[in-house]
Amino acid sequence: MKLIGMLDSPYVRRVAISLELYGVEFEHQALSVFSTFAEFSRINPVVKAPTLLLDDGTLLMDSNLILDYFETLAPASHKLFPQQPDARAKDLELTGLALAACEKSVQIVYEHNLRPAEKLHEPWLDRVTGQLLAAYGLLEKRLPDSPSLTQGSLTAAVAWSFTQLMIASVVKAEAFPRLQQHTALLEQHPAFMRYPMQ
Ligand SMILES: N[C@@H](CCC(=O)N[C@@H](CS)C(=O)NCC(=O)O)C(=O)O
Hints:
Elements: E1 2-4, H1 10-22, E2 27-29, H2 37-43, E3 51-53, E4 59-61, H3 63-73, H4 85-113, H5 122-142, H6 151-167, H7 177-186, H8 190-194
Parallel strand pairs: 1-2
Antiparallel strand pairs: 1-3, 3-4
Helix pairs in contact: 1-3, 1-6, 4-5, 4-6, 6-7
Bound molecules: glutathione (GSH).
């Protein structure tokens, strides 16, 4: 099976790290949805990263759907979402906040990198920035004191590393010390080090 997409996408990276933690073997093909659009489109005409191509030709896209499949396959010892309902709800909360932070960060990056400067729409950027800061504000509060390696905690770290790489001037690291510390710790984990953002 093949995972297609660049690791500087937080969605691709969370899938790569999760597959590693599940113990699933896969080939990573680092294609960009921008610079290698044509090659990407020959595998997935929709050109969405991550794309996961199963050995039988099934094409999965959207990190949550890809991870849903592997979470179902994983034995209890390797599942990344807690099984106990209250703990699961807390972890889904972290995951949702981290994914919102990814989405808002990506929107800001696209607004700056894809749109001509004269067409930047400041009210939209302000709105998205407010949503991004709200997502990280809640994550900073909701991260448990000693988080275990779950889907929520790993997605929070992947999101934070992405935001800090791409738009550190928008989200000041010093205002989020718990996210900083949490991410620094997880970035030392072998699964994170095997799939670095750059
Ligand atoms: N909700 C999706 C978001 C994926 C996403 O937006 N990926 C970006 C790369 S970071 C992409 O494919 N951009 C190209 C496009 O949307 O045309 C997921 O979780 O996989």
